């Protein structure tokens, strides 16, 4: 349960064996391939021309496949969210995969999908255009004349038009004042507009034009339409119906012929994505005309497995593994047991440890689970959370980070269940309402013994802070800095321990024996002097070292503030309890409503109220427990910033291919 030992790797092999060796490395999944420019800065990060051509071809196929998948997915039935999560990846045999590879012509499929999508788009555009035309023509549905007859004569102007319905009467009155040589045939009227046929003598056109402009008269022309408006609308609706039928025919064909093959398209997408990644990785190789060189890293325990796998495919290779040089940037692989492994998610959110550091995951995982349990602080909530997350892990198709998060919440739920039983928190019931079996398990009452709860939080905080300083001391010993470990960490640990009973007595009014106080005062004075004399030992000139040591001693206030920060454990635990009690009291108040309404409303309040309380305080418990690890614990010993070990391995996003070769050595490296 630590940072695994990693060794530098250099592999030289004949170019004829390149494909077999790359396939072996990918199936093994144990080698972190680094850029060859780390060894040869003058080399160019480029593929040979024959591999570059293959990469371009594969990228083209991948782009075509992605287009086809996105097109077909539009027509696939959408399962409910939980059903989608529970659905496992489709599984194919090697024979089925090879059959798909041989029978599916991606180029033809792409052309057909493009043609069908173009037809659908054209149909959609035509439908929108015709519906707009129907809307325009519908203003003249009452017109009995064919539209082609609406045209000027030798002496008159005949035109269709629309004006503002609120100004129609004013416009006609003003037109009548200008000239009587016009006629208006109203064909449609609404609150905002009037559609009409306007006929007037060309001799008065100059007189009527200003009036028409004044009242926003808008002429309308249908140059290419023949027949009466009613006939035109009927024809357009028939054409729209035919377009809808054609669209439906295309959709049915896609659902019949393409949707059932969607999993196979996903299979090919995974295959070509993997091939593309395999070629991209080879940019980091060094190629000559006859050989190629790979530089990378491997976990020491996997070195023999690598030699064995390479020996199975070729004997024309040379593999050299050696320990990294001091100061070299080594990728970090964290290896933890099944219970601790999910907490690497929290470590990675902060940053991988450096290769020379301890893995903080097993060091903070118990604290995180305990602190989460204290913040949530209810046995009922903890049981629901743990059981719900456990069922989700078993039933739903969840991988990667989300799966790790659920596993962390299972441990957090267990922590809450245990702490809730010890502190009398069961669905936020008051102590007098608890069954006798729960009362017998109580060590203290969280909502009644608030000061005791606070002291417990402070005590846990002090323990974790001292533990963090102790880890830093162990790191210094590991590096051979024994003097630093004694003077910079051991002295501080003893000094903080000596201050603990004094703070408890004089700051919080706790009962501490006089003998303990006397010994603590004496020890604190001696250790304070020792810290003043030693903490500035690296200051130059030495005459200023006591002053530097005195300033360092003031750092005790930082430790005091760190311990106080753990009061949030008590605050969040009480917030959960009191909010839940309020929900219970509200439900109790409305039970008296007659005809069973009170019981129904109380049930709703209890279910939704406690669900909200669980959700909001679960979020708070996670965030604040995380904060305590990052700010109060990690700051004592952890630097971070290490490079993640990312082995070259098979990566399939959508499908699974059952095959006989051995599984990758690393399944949870991320």
Rounded to an integer, what's the Rg over CA atoms? Answer: 39 Å
Helix content: 55-70%
What count of helical segments does DSSP give?
22
Shape: extended
* Mean pLDDT across every amino acid position: 89
Total tally of structural domains: 3
Terminal CA distance: 15 Å
Strand content: 5-15%
The largest β sheet comes out as:
5 strands, antiparallel
- The secondary-structure class comes to alpha+beta
How many β strands by DSSP?
15
Q: Flag low-confidence runs.
A: none
InterPro entries: V-ATPase_116kDa_su
GO molecular function: ATPase binding; proton-transporting ATPase activity, rotational mechanism
Family: Belongs to the V-ATPase 116 kDa subunit family.
Keywords: Coiled coil, Ion transport, Membrane, Transmembrane, Transmembrane helix, Transport
Can you walk me through this structure?
This protein has 670 residues and is an alpha+beta fold. The protein folds into three domains: 1-119 and 245-333 and 645-670, no CATH class; 145-227, Alpha-Beta Plaits; 341-480 and 567-636, no CATH class. 58% of the residues lie in helices and 11% in strands. The chain has helices spanning 18-28, 49-73, 81-86, 94-103, 106-137, 168-178, 205-214, 229-258, 262-281, 303-313, 344-350, 361-376, 379-395, 400-423, 436-441, 450-478, 482-506, 514-534, 545-553, 556-565, 567-589, 597-633, and strands at 2-3, 6-14, 31-33, 91-93, 156-164, 182-189, 193-201, 218-220, 286-287, 291-299, 317-322, 331-332, 334-335, 643-644, 656-658. Strands 2, 3, 9, 10 and 11 form a five-stranded antiparallel beta sheet that branches. The chain has a four-stranded antiparallel beta sheet with strand order 6-7-5-8, covered by helices on one side. A two-stranded antiparallel ribbon has the order 1-13. Strand 6 (182-189) and strand 7 form a beta hairpin. 26% of the residues are buried. The mean pLDDT is 89.
């Amino acid at each position: 349960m630590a940072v695994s030992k990693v060794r530098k790797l250099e592999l030289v092999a004949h170019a004829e064996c390149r494909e077999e060796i790359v396939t072996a490395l990918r199936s093994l999944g144990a080698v972190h391939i680094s850029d060859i420019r780390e060894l040869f800065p003058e080399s160019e990060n480029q593929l040979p021309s024959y591999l570059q051509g293959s990469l371009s071809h594969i990228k083209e196929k991948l782009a075509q496949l992605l287009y086809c998948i996105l097109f077909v997915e539009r027509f696939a039935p959408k399962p409910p969210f939980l059903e989608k999560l529970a659905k496992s990846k489709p599984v194919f045999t090697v024979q089925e995969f090879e059959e798909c590879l041989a029978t599916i012509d991606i180029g033809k499929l792409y052309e057909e999908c493009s043609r069908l999508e173009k037809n659908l788009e054209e149909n959609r555009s035509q439908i929108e255009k015709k519906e707009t035309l129907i809307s325009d023509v519908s203003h003249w549905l009452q017109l009995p004349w064919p539209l082609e007859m609406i045209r000027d004569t030798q002496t008159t102007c005949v035109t269709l038009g629309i004006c503002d319905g609120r100004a129609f009467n004013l416009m006609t009155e003003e037109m009548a004042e200008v000239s009587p040589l016009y006629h208006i045939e109203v064909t449609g009227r609404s609150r905002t507009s009037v559609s009409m046929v306007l006929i007037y003598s060309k001799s008065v056109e100059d007189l009527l034009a200003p009036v028409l402009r004044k009242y926003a008269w808008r002429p309308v022309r249908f140059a290419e339409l023949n027949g009466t408006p009613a006939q035109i609308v009927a024809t357009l609706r028939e054409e729209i119906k035919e377009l809808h039928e054609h669209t439906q025919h295309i959709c049915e064909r896609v659902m019949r012929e393409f949707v059932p093959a969607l999993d196979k398209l996903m299979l090919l997408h995974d295959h070509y994505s993997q091939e593309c990644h395999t070629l991209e990785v080879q940019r980091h190789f060094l190629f000559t005309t006859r050989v190629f060189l790979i530089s990378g890293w491997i976990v020491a325990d996997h070195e023999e497995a690598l030699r064995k796998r390479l020996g199975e495919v070729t004997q024309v290779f040379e593999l050299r593994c050696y320990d990294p040089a001091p100061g070299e940037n080594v990728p970090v692989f964290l290896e933890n047991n099944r219970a601790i492994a999910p907490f690497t998610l929290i470590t990675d959110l902060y940053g991988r440890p450096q290769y020379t550091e301890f893995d903080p995951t097993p060091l903070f995982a118990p604290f995180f689970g305990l602190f989460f349990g204290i913040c949530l602080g209810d046995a009922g909530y903890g049981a629901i959370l743990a059981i719900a997350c456990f069922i989700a892990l078993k039933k739903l198709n969840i991988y990667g980070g989300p799966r790790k998060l659920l596993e962390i919440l299972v441990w957090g739920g267990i922590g809450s269940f245990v702490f809730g039983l010890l502190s009398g928190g069961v669905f936020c019931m008051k102590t007098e309402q608890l069954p006798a079996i729960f009362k017998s398990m109580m060590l203290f009452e969280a909502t009644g013994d608030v000061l005791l709860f606070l002291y417990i939080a402070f005590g846990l905080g002090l323990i974790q802070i001292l533990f963090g300083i102790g880890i830093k001391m162990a790191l210094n010993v590991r590096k051979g800095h024994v003097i630093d470990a004694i003077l910079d960490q051991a002295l501080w640990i003893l000094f903080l321990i000596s201050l603990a009973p004094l703070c408890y007595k004089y700051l919080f009014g706790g009962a501490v024996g006089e003998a303990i106080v006397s010994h603590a005062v004496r020890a604190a004075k001696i250790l304070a002097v020792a810290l003043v004399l030693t903490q500035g030992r690296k200051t130059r000139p030495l005459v200023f070292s006591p002053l530097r040591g005195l300033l360092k001693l003031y750092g005790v206030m930082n430790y005091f503030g760190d311990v106080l920060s753990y009061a949030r454990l008590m605050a969040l635990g009480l917030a959960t309890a009191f909010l839940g009690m309020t929900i219970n009291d509200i439900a109790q108040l409305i039970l008296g409503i007659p005809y069973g309404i009170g019981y129904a409303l109380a049930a709703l309040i209890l279910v939704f109220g406690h669900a909200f309380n669980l959700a909001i305080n679960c979020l708070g418990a996670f965030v604040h427990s995380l904060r305590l690890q990052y700010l109060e614990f990690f700051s004592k010993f952890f630097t971070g910033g290490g490079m993640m070990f990312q082995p070259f391995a098979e990566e399939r996003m959508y499908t699974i291919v059952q095959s006989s070769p051995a599984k990758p050595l690393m399944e949870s490296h991320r």
